[in-house]
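Q: Study each token:
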Amino acid sequence: MKKKPEDLVAEIRAYCAAQQDPKKAGKWERYLREGYDARGLLDKDHPIWNEKQQEWLESYGGLGLHGFLKAGELLFQSGKYEEGALAIRFLKMRPAIPPLLDFLRPLMMDEERVVHQGAGWFLREAWKQDPQPVEAFLLEWKDSTPRLIFQYATEKMTPAARARFRRGKSS
């Protein structure tokens, strides 16, 4: 039977529910003033971020980029921190930056601060892997999208490189 994005999402959610630790979730809540809905699996050494993530990537590799994008869309719907983080991490492991930028487009004008943070974080990490398409994407949005996205996206750039992405500056 061919595996589907929905199968991956169901497997992830079952694992997260079985492993949840509300005490640890509460520990990290104070850092996110907008609210934090997590299962308490944030510790970097938790198997979800290492063994399980790799296991799911191997087991569901046949989904391809579009399948992982669909799974990511479903994972983000729950609002659970770990599920959204896994969606990003799965895509980060795939070497296809331009299609991921297309996936990000609808989020660029979102009103939520945490979306701005997440989009900026993603763009910063994508820029490290493949600067050219990310810089073109940033130039496209520099005069219209929230500045917090650019603050995160450009924080590893040199001051001169960052200056290119200020509003009103010509590239």
